[in-house]
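User: quick one, fold this
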Amino acid sequence: MKLKGKTALVTGASRGIGRSIALGLASEGAHIAINYKKEEAAAERVKKQIQSKSTGNKAITVRGSTSTKKDVGLVVDRTIKCFGKIDILINNAGILTRTPFLEIQETEWDSIIETNLKGYFLMSQAVALTMVQNGINGSIVNISSVLEKITAPNLTHYSVTKAGVSMLTKQTALELAPHGIRVNALAPGFISTDMNRQELDDKEFKEAALGDIPLGIIGRPEDITGSVVFLCSDKEARLITGTTIFIDGGRSLK
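Assistant:
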């Protein structure tokens, strides 16, 4: 119960890594605001799963796009109205498409940038303002990717957003440190989720992916949870800010 009494807002929490993080934070005692954009039924299942535990913590679902300031404001306001504060923000909502550089359309570029980078900025700013106003020494964790550091075919737009998340993490860590707010990032490698499951069903694709991972392991969403809990713990990570932890089976070593 490392996070007992704290409130965590997790974006993109209806499935995949976001879902696993929400459940992991709840298991440590945090109340959870489950943000989603479209998957209402999936978000409700996460809520019910949290509430079925005997830890006594609460959960709500909050619909809204992280890429528009209006929706971000509504998500943050609803969370504050329900729980009175936000101690933890997990920026996780993101999208990925694989398109050769010469074929990327402006609309596709804008969509990836708005969700994966602008959304992290808008949500971080809105939540940090409430933390400062309420004197909360909070924690923000940005879910980045190993692709903030390395390249991969057909992922120019996605990789650029994750490189941006890396610098956003450092900048916000620097500027929010005087307020006692810590900002860090996690950079997963290949994690099996709904986003890439169809690709991993392709034997040739999976073998190529495994060939790039020194440990030879495709990760699961649950592999991210422990590091998130650690970074959100005031006791265990109180001196850690502005850093990125790579959870990639060694892929970033190449």
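User: anything notable?
Assistant: The chain has eight helices and seven strands.
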